[in-house]
Write a structure and sequence with these properties.
single chain; 42 residues; mainly alpha; 50% helix; rod-shaped
Length: 42
C-alpha cells in the first residue's frame, strides 16, 4: 500500500481517491453495538 503511494498515481487512481474517502470516514465512525443476544445459529 505505502509502496504504491510513492509511485506516480494515474489519473484513474486520483478519481477513485476522490470517491473512496467517504467510505473510510464512515468506517472510522463508531459502529453501532451488534446485538449478540441473538445467536448466529439456532
Amino acid at each position: 500500500m505505502l509502496a504504491r503511494a510513492t509511485k506516480p498515481v494515474p489519473a484513474s487512481s486520483l478519481a477513485r481517491a476522490v470517491v473512496l474517502p467517504p467510505v473510510p470516514v464512515v468506517l472510522t465512525q463508531p459502529l453501532p453495538p451488534v446485538p449478540q443476544s441473538q445467536p448466529s445459529a439456532p
